[in-house]
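Sample 3 of the quickstart, ligand iron/sulfur cluster:
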Amino acid sequence: MSTATFRIWRGDSAGGQFVDYTTKVAEGMVVLDAVHAIQATQANDLACRWNCKAGRCGSCSAEINGRPRLMCMTRLDELPDESITVEPMKTFPLIRDLVTDVSWNYQAKKKIKKFKPRPPDAPDGTWRMAQADVDRVQEFRKCIECFLCQDVCHVLRDHNKLAEFVGPRLLVFAAALEMHPLDTEDRLPELKRSAGIGYCNITKCCTKVCPENIKITDNAIIPLKERVVDEFYDPLGWLWKLVRPKTGSGSELKVPSSGLSQSPKAAV
Amino acid sequence: MAEGGVAAALANVDDRDNWRVHFADTMRGGQYVNDWRMAELHAKEAPDRVRELEAWGAVFDRTPDGRILQRNFGGHRYPRLAHVGDRTGLEMIRTLQDHGIHQGIQVHMEHTIVTLLKDGERVSGAFGYDRERGRFKLFRAKAVVLATGGIGRAYKITSNSWEYTADGQSLAYNAGAELMDMEFVQFHPTGMIWPPSVMGILVTEGVRGEGGILLNKNGERFMFSSIPENYRAQTADNPEEGWRYTQGDKNAKRPPELLTRDHVSRCIMNEVKAGRGSPHGGVFLDIAWIKEKLPNAAEHIKKKLPSMYHQFMQLANLDITKEPMEVGPTTHYIMGGVRVNSETQMASVPGLFAAGEVAAGLHGSNRLGGNSLSDLLVFGKRAGEFAAKFAKEHNAGVIDQTQIEEAAGEALAPFDRTPGANGSSEGPYQVQYDLQEMMQNLVGIVRYQREMEQALKELAKFQERCRKVVVHGHREYNSGWHTALDLQHLLTVSEAITRAAIERKESRGGHFRDDYPNKDAAEGKFNIVVHRAGDGSMQIRREPIPEMPEYLKQIIEEMK
Ligand SMILES: Cc1cc2nc3c(=O)[nH]c(=O)nc-3n(C[C@H](O)[C@H](O)[C@H](O)COP(=O)(O)OP(=O)(O)OC[C@H]3O[C@@H](n4cnc5c(N)ncnc54)[C@H](O)[C@@H]3O)c2cc1C
Ligand code: SF4
Ligand code: SF4
Ligand code: FES
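Result:
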């Protein structure tokens, strides 16, 4: 068993500094294991948020050697041997040590209108959707809300536009709703205004850090931007929008016609 | 986080399914000590709860005709688990969260309740602190619903997150509520065992549902040699039929890998004991072999089990589409918990409700995979509705200031303690590790009277250590402090598990005793109830199971 040195940020909103800790490391260990070992033996009060230790809950986000990552999914053997730096995400207010206050993300979520399904397709109050039509939405719904993309996005991180821009995570969220085959809501005006989609200049930094490998920029943000542009700057498109019905991407499924008049209430 | 899926007899994949089959499966899985009324309500109401999630925006995987797809799982006769790849729990959490945001619900994130407050017999509120700042907070409430999950952190090897420290069971017990079935702890057969830092992390049963097989170090499919009598009629006796079952052949019977979890766990233990285990003390779980059957097997596996693929690639450097995994049993779920009314979910303390893993009854001695997510949907709704009704019908109780002061004093005590006479002081982590080690060794998968009696003695010593634990630093997000407060919950519940396990002198479901290896019909006629006596000591009582009504007996008879 060898040892490694970790430079961990200790402090709160008033200030702090890096503290070096040396601990034993074994095969297969991840950064979170080392933080736990340090916490158990050398710094009982070291603040660190975690839950699943399996990359599912998105709570152990931090910056490891300057890069936003999940502590529980970063193996020590993929990091350089010299000392390893662990510090909290910079975009959000620091609570203590490695823990930040990410509640802004939940507040910002309220800006996006909720799911509004079309009336059920079948008399028993259920819907029909083809797998091919839900694949795209399922990609977005893989999001574990680790907020690493929010942390890395320069609009939030460097320009501090938290009031004007909801950030990549919430654009993924909006895309999941907009591309949901059952949804009938129109969120384009708010995407342009309160969500501030125009601030994104497609640097793709968010996509690079996403632990779920969601193609945030290509699959979510760019298609949403295109819809916003069509809606607001294309007079013909705008006219068409007034008369067209809103549809999904279109694989045909047989649906009992009697169901089409059911109200959504029948399903609950 | 839940992976496999949520069980509901939607009959989308096999139209022979209905609530009666689901009911019979749940009772058989629980070895008939379940609360039969809960099992009935659960089987009847689960389909509506799943459809409700879809109406709130959940996106389940689809059948070719566009309905919610369902997969096979251990102990379920037909494909019954609605799922989203292997991240069903995340989908449910997100759906409920996103729906809740617009319902005017006030959420207090990262708050921990340390005690329930009472006004005479009834509950009048809850008292706790916010983890971020460490400030105390009082919640006045006409009714309280516990939904705090399980107890896995009482054991060394567990699939559960750090939050599974038995808070709810212990809060309820301290408030005077009865606990039931605490001897029934589920050890899931397939947890990761290598490398050491990932030990216990779950490998979903979905792997076996998709055709994964269990092998010992000689490459033998050992599950075929131990199929229990009561499952023989429904279990395949050759690999070919087992494979066809996983691929949706309605006439095929299930492979023995999909027998109930308690049984598969013990079979794995037996292989290891007999010296036929894998290099790191487990057995092999192989899904890669399906390339013999499917042309695009690697893609298929990645599509069906994306999180598993990811988990092994990233944490163990292992490609499950090419190599077998090494797996072994891991503490996963507690069937027991707060004893509740079958319809309303109210505990024996008026105004206190419990739903989900913290409550007892539905699963009897062993829970079927997928039945927990449906449990918490069905009974979460019921608990909420009946708690609301209770709150409307009752005035606010009186808050007793001395209860609050006592609780606050106790919570802060670890900060104020000074090192012992010899200058030594112990932090909370070592005590927690030692407790987990002790429970794993003495009240684990295979139990003996002598060892469990030893465990009781050890628990008394742990109480001593717990009372002396010292915590340093401030109250803001102090993990050491939180761990110190969790310890008392873990100790209370460990004692309840041990005492109930000593009392049940037979083997049934998750409870296996080497000194009483068989099921005993007489022991199957009651549940074991734990409660706190006036003098603060823990008491055990045998509660007869009420007679099942004729129509339910008939269903069980028909489905045998
Ligand atoms: C890895 C894994 C996979 C699983 N897969 C499946 C599956 O596929 N299908 C299935 O049916 N079941 C599955 N289960 C079981 C199922 O997920 C759990 O039983 C279920 O999530 C329990 O839900 P719950 O609502 O009762 O509690 P939880 O979802 O655990 O929620 C409990 C909550 O209470 C909070 N809490 C605890 N103590 C306190 C306190 N003192 N004060 C305030 N808050 C507190 C916790 O922070 C937590 O948020 C799985 C379990 C695990 C661990
Ligand atoms: S692509 Fe847009 S959202 Fe993503 S990091 Fe760059 S600016 Fe931010
Ligand atoms: S989109 Fe990716 S990086 Fe952003 S919060 Fe979700 S999982 Fe994390
Ligand atoms: S602890 Fe859950 S993602 Fe790291």
